[in-house]
């Protein structure tokens, strides 16, 4: 007779423990020690596949969430509104600069849309997803079940950040596509005039839009790092979102004060607008490169802060 | 657990340290001292070498790069001005891109956010392009004038190239200046000689002026002006990035893009320029100087009302908003210290590099000297 | 014994503790002091044998949930160490199903989608079998009918059931259930009890915290009792009850006579408090005592054998007071 059966017996009749047994002071029944390790050891799974599965689940959560869908829709509508507005205003000759250039070329709407959105609306949507990432789960209590699953803290944080980065790129691509389609419908297609006064072909114009998407997306990914880091400090996601936006606005204010000019090169918004480097001839690769370095520095710093905080945090929610 | 906490937070701290280190090493355009990689030279040898190299290849070699100008003169708060205003150059940091293919192949671009102005010189063609108002201006130069050295109607960024600054400063090196040379400077990643000019006069506000010459081509790469008692240059202009290869030809070809306004302008014919010249002449007539060399003080008749008048005289937007001199003056005078002495009384404005005294009897004294020296000069009528 | 580090994702390669490798949970001096000085768990030495159904008892605020959080790697202990299933925590957790302090799910997802989400978080769970396993888990807690319903629209009991289902995704060696019957109807309570027995019958260790002493007494083989962060008793249910003996209680108008008879029969600790007389039953048969009383002419209105209950033990150890711990 196996020990397990004895145990089952005992368990099924808890009231009928022999007196001799009840008098013992040992902490467990002598017969209860199980024989050897259990057979049902989980098979060593492929960690990479499991990582993608969790990321997939995270992406599904993000992109199926109505709130996030609404944000993407709003962002997609802005280039449309700008395009229509410029189309109506196209009669007046007076407009110069980037805005004036849209009337002459459909591709320019993409750059104009970015110049409008990159400073506030895109950061808001990235801050919402990034700020909600950890704090939202903590607030809802689902974080404790994810970690008990066990998702692994470093692994979960990596998935959360990657998800925010992918959302940042989704935001950027949505804006670019909406602007591109609106531009093609409303304005003439043709060679693109750059800020430097020279002209490039439509194909090269599209290539430059692609470079812009890559660059602006990286800038938003840097903001996502801040948002995720702040998200690990609170259980209230709106707090992390608001804190991120406060930082963005403070940076804009600093940029507007001439006495604080020396701080500008260290601020993200300064570099977000530097995508105008693609509109110069030749492309100002030095500016783009330096911007990417700044984004990389922000990502490195804030991801490591998020990691230090999250791996050491007591989950009491 | 405690130890684990320290180890964990060590990671972001290390990340911050790495970033700070990279930041310190990266954009520094100030000459960084290091192991000398260049042979030693006296000032005389250096200037001779430079002159020889210049005449050998007939001027500056083809090159391109980014020039940055930084000023921290310690001026009182300046109002925000349009990006093209020259007043702007007095504070903060500004960048121009330069492509130099030869004496008559020059492109200078001044990029600003979502805008760019370009001056493109190609042979006898000179274009001025402003993306902000979508205007291409074909600049005609009156025959007999040398394009390369002519003053363009806007504050030309080429004023800021180290070449010109270095030439000006070297000309000023006289008996009242101590000159020495260091051979361990690095500018824009290139080994460079540094000509250090130190005023001998104690009352000068200038500590020293450093001119960096490229170790290979002897092209001036950087000019820095240090004020007394300050480790950072009060003013500097220099390359942050430079390559001595001939720039691509398309940099010097300019065709006005479709839809742009195209204007023509002949230099020297400009009415506004004439007015300017007249005004300058008037001013020059009233100007006199006191002192010698580094401590020379300029004295000119001046009434604050003049500037206010000037504003009303030029209603056609000659001055950018906020850069208008009247407003600027009001702003500056607010932070001036009232002073008085045997010479009379007035208002003193002191910056790191320049002291100005506006006397109540309508004189403006300006010099790179201490306040004591300028009040002394005010006594000499 | 090696300290199990707090980081569940990257634990130190902790060797199994020096204690019996067969123990599902072992803690030594496990202490949690929250920021602000609150000592929630104080030097806890707990041993949960494999295969047991272990009741974790204690008044409100006595540190039960905090202990469970530490065992799951959610909260870092201030001092002490612990081991779960005798292996590093990251390796142990996939074999542990947990319900901590009530259900928590994504309100905008269906029950099924919620379970799939938590299954995806487990690096050892195979994505291919996820749907089947989720289906089985829902079946087991009787939620199959509501699988497609949004969690937001679940009733309290349905939520609790879903949380139990989440703990049952995949094969488990240890089930940690923090107040599993909270909010369930009597039917549900019975079902949970049956479920726990069924799971335990498969050899899974069940660690269940509860206030419901009767429930613990019915379900559990072992129990531990906490009070203000301290362990005041642990062992088999029987050994805990063993401190108190079975007594016989006689209800009678003739209390004095009855006491005399019981004394004569050799029963120990006879206490008379009209209209009741009690004594330790010892090894005697109650029916014979009854016969003897009747023979002596004592009017017996009622006769009962009083077995010691866990509640008596609990109240004896934690006091009668109504105040929460902490
Ligand atoms: N995050 C926290 N910060 C400070 N104190 C806490 C925290 N979490 C719990 N405590 C305290 O720790 C003690 C134990 O709490 P715990 O939740 O473990 O009790 P419990 O035994 O689960 O109670 P209940 O039966 O009510 O669920 C309580 O006094 C509680 O106030
Ligand atoms: Mg609890």
What structural keywords apply?
heterotrimer, A: 317 residues, mainly alpha, two-stranded antiparallel ribbon, 13 helices, 2 strands, globular, disordered N terminus, C: 326 residues, alpha/beta, Rossmann fold, Alpha-Beta Plaits, 6-stranded mixed β-sheet, 4-stranded antiparallel β-sheet, 11 helices, 14 strands, binds adenosine-5'-triphosphate, binds magnesium ion
Description:
The complex is a heterotrimer of chains A (317), B (381) and C (326). Chain A is globular. Chain A starts with a helix and ends in a 6-residue tail after the last helix. Chain A has a two-stranded antiparallel sheet with strand order 1-2. Chain A is an all-alpha fold. In chain A, helix 4 crosses helix 6 and helix 7 (121-140) packs parallel to helix 10 (202-231). Chain A has helices at residues 3-12, 19-22, 47-64, 66-89, 97-104, 108-117, 121-140, 142-148, 153-186, 202-231, 237-256, 268-272, 285-311; strands at residues 192-193, 199-200. Chain A has one domain. Chain B has 381 residues and is an alpha+beta fold. Chain B contains 7 helices and 18 strands. In chain B, helix 5 runs antiparallel to helix 6. Mean pLDDT of chain B is 76; it is low at 27-32, 77-85, 144-160 and 311-323. Chain C has 326 residues and is an alpha/beta fold. Chain C folds into 2 domains: 3-241, P-loop containing nucleotide triphosphate hydrolases (Rossmann fold); 247-307, Alpha-Beta Plaits. Chain C is built from 11 helices and 14 strands. In chain C, strands 6-7-8-4-9-10 form a 6-stranded mixed beta sheet, sandwiched between helices. In chain C, strands 1, 2, 3 and 5 form a 4-stranded antiparallel beta sheet that branches. In chain C, strand 1 and strand 2 (39-44) form a beta hairpin. The relative contact order of chain C is 0.14. Chains A and C meet through helix 1, helix 2, helix 3, helix 8 and helix 9 of A and helix 3, helix 6, helix 7, strand 10 and helix 8 of C. The structure holds adenosine-5'-triphosphate and magnesium ion. Adenosine-5'-triphosphate is lined by residues 34, 36, 38, 40, 58, 60-66, 326 of chain C.
């Amino acid at each position: 007779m196996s020990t397990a059966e004895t145990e089952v017996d005992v368990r099924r009749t808890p009231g009928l423990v022999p007196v001799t047994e009840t008098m013992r002071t040992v902490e467990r029944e002598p017969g209860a020690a199980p024989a050897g390790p259990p057979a049902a050891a989980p098979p060593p799974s492929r960690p990479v596949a499991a990582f993608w599965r969790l990321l997939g689940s995270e992406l599904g959560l993000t992109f199926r969430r109505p709130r996030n869908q609404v944000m993407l829709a709003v962002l997609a509508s802005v280039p449309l509104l700008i395009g229509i507005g410029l189309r109506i205003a196209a009669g007046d000759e007076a407009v110069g600069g980037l805005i004036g250039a849209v009337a002459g070329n459909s591709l320019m709407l993409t750059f104009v849309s970015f110049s409008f959105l990159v400073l506030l609306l895109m950061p808001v949507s990235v801050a919402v997803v990034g700020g909600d990432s950890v704090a939202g789960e903590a607030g809802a209590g689902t974080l404790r079940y994810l970690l008990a699953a066990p998702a692994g803290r470093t692994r979960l944080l990596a998935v959360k950040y990657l998800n925010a980065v992918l959302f940042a790129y989704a935001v950027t691509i949505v804006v670019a596509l909406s602007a591109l389609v609106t531009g093609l419908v409303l304005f003439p297609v043709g060679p693109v005039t750059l800020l430097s006064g020279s002209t490039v072909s439509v194909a090269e114009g599209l290539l430059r839009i692609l470079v812009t998407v890559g660059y602006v997306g990286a800038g938003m990914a840097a903001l996502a790092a801040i948002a995720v880091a702040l998200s690990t400090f609170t259980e209230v996601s709106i707090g992390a979102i608001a804190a991120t936006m406060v930082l963005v606005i403070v940076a804009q204010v600093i940029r507007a004060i001439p006495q604080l000019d020396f701080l500008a090169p260290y601020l993200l918004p300064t570099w977000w607008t530097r995508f105008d480097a693609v509109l110069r001839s030749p492309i100002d690769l030095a500016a783009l490169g330096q911007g990417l370095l700044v984004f990389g520095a922000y990502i490195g710093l804030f991801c490591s802060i998020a990691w230090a905080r999250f791996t050491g945090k007591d989950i009491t929610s | 657990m405690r130890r684990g906490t320290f180890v964990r937070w060590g990671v972001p701290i290390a990340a911050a340290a790495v970033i700070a280190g990279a930041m310190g090493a990266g954009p520094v355009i100030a000459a960084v001292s290091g192991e000398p990689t260049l042979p030693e030279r006296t000032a005389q040898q250096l200037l001779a070498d430079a002159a020889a190299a210049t005449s050998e290849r007939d001027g500056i070699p083809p090159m391109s790069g980014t020039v940055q100008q930084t000023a921290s003169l310690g001026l009182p708060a300046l109002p925000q001005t349009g990006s093209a205003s020259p007043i702007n150059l007095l504070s903060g940091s500004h960048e121009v891109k330069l492509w130099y293919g030869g004496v008559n192949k020059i492109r200078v671009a001044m990029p600003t956010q979502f805008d760019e102005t370009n001056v493109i010189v190609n042979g006898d063609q000179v274009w001025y392009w402003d993306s902000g108002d979508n205007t291409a201006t074909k600049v005609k130069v009156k025959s007999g004038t040398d394009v390369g050295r002519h003053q363009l109607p806007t504050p030309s960024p080429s004023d800021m190239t180290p070449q010109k600054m270095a030439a000006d400063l070297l000309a000023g090196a006289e008996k009242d200046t101590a000159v020495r040379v260091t051979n361990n400077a690095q500018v824009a990643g290139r080994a460079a000689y540094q000509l250090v000019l130190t005023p001998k006069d104690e009352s000068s506000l200038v500590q020293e002026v450093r001119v960096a010459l490229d170790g290979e081509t002897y092209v001036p790469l950087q000019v820095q002006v240090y004020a007394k008692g300050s480790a950072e240059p009060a003013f500097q202009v220099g390359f942050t990035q430079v390559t001595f290869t001939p720039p691509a030809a398309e940099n010097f070809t300019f065709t006005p893009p479709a839809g742009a306004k195209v204007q023509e302008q002949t230099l020297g014919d400009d009415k506004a320029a004439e007015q300017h010249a007249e005004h300058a002449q008037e001013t020059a007539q009233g100007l006199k100087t006191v002192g010698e060399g580094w401590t020379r003080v300029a004295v000119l008749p001046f009434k604050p009302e003049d500037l206010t008048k000037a504003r009303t005289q030029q209603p056609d937007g000659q001055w950018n908003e906020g850069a208008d001199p009247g407003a600027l003056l009001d702003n500056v005078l607010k932070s001036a210290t009232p002073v008085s002495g045997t010479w009379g009384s007035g208002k003193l404005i002191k910056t790191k590099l320049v002291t100005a005294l506006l006397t109540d009897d309508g004189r403006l004294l300006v010099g790179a000297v201490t306040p004591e020296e300028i009040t002394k000069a005010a006594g000499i009528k | 014994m090696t300290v199990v580090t707090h980081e569940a994702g990257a634990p130190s390669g902790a060797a199994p503790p020096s204690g019996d490798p067969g123990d599902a949970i072992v803690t030594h001096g496990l202490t949690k002091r929250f920021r602000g000085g609150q000592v929630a768990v104080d030097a806890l030495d707990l041993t949960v044998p494999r295969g047991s159904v272990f009741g974790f008892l204690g008044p409100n605020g006595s540190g039960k949930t905090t202990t469970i959080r530490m065992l799951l790697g959610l909260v870092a202990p201030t001092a002490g160490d612990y081991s779960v299933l005798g292996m590093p925590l990251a390796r142990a957790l996939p074999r542990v199903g947990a319900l901590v302090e009530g259900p928590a799910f994504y309100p905008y997802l269906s029950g099924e989608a919620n379970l799939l989400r938590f299954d995806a978080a487990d690096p050892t769970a195979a994505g291919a079998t996820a749907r089947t396993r989720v289906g089985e888990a829902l079946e087991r807690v009787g939620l199959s009918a509501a699988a497609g319903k949004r969690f937001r629209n679940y009733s309290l009991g349905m939520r609790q059931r879903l949380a139990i289902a989440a703990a049952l995704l995949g094969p488990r060696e240890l089930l940690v259930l923090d107040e599993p019957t909270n909010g369930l109807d009597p039917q549900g309570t019975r079902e949970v009890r049956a479920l726990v027995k069924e799971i335990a019958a498969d050899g899974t260790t069940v660690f269940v915290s509860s206030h419901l002493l009767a429930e613990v007494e019915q379900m559990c083989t072992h129990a531990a009792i906490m009070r203000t962060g301290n362990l005041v008793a642990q062992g088999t249910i029987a050994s805990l009850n063993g401190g108190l003996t079975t007594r016989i209680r006689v209800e009678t108008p003739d209390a004095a006579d009855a006491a005399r008879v019981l004394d004569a029969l050799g029963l120990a600790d006879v206490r008379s408090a009209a209209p009741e007389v009690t004594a330790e039953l010892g090894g005697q048969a109650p029916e014979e005592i009854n016969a003897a009383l009747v023979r002596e002419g004592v009017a017996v209105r009622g006769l009962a054998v009083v077995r010691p209950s866990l509640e008596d033990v609990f109240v004896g150890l934690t006091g009668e007071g109504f105040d929460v711990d902490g």
